[in-house]
Amino acid sequence: MSPPTAVPADPQKGCVMANRVTYRRVYEETSPGDGTRVLVDRVWPRGMRKEDAHVDEWLRDVAPSTELRRWYGHEPDRFAEFRRRYLAELRDSGHREAVARLRDLAARDQLTLLTATRDADHSQAAVLAEWLSGTPGDGR
Fold it and tell me: DSSP of 35-85, one letter per residue?
């Protein structure tokens, strides 16, 4: 299978990849086109009941380490460095099984990566969606 290519999408809803990977906030309404919905946060979203989240799978082990998440603090000016460090973390043994599962899900069907982060475009979900697209220089 040839690597997918990024396709521009509505910036309010996240980026759409040719292999049908999207990302969005877990608090947004579900859509029939979401496909498999995977939460990629290490901690469960505040105020969200599990039955209301409509999450098919929670891959907390694909999330950034607690240390990296705290360092980043969702400051957009740190996003480039966050992205670099996170991609390095994805190569370590602690992420290996979750990364393999995520790749498998992305290859099978429409995949929506979910995050509680307010700015989804500057989140691990955005990095993962780009990374799954096979963008050159992605550190894989």
Answer: -EEEE--SSPPTT--HHHHT-SEE-GGGSPPHHHHHHHTT-GGGHHHHHHH
Low-confidence ranges of the chain (pLDDT < 70): 1-19, 135-140
Distance of CA 43 to the CA centre of its chain: 14
Is the overall model pTM greater than 0.70, yes or no?
A: yes
Grouping H, G, I as helix, E, B as strand and the rest as coil, residue 4 is coil
Residue 98 Cα distances to 2, 7, 105, 135, angstroms: 22, 25, 11, 20
**How confident is the model over 30-51, as pLDDT tens digits?**
998 999 999 999 999 999 999 8
| Residue 90 token pair | 């994805």
Spatial CB neighbours of 55, under 8 Å, sequence gap ≥ 6: 26, 37, 38, 39, 114
Closest CA to 17 of 119, 115, 129: 129
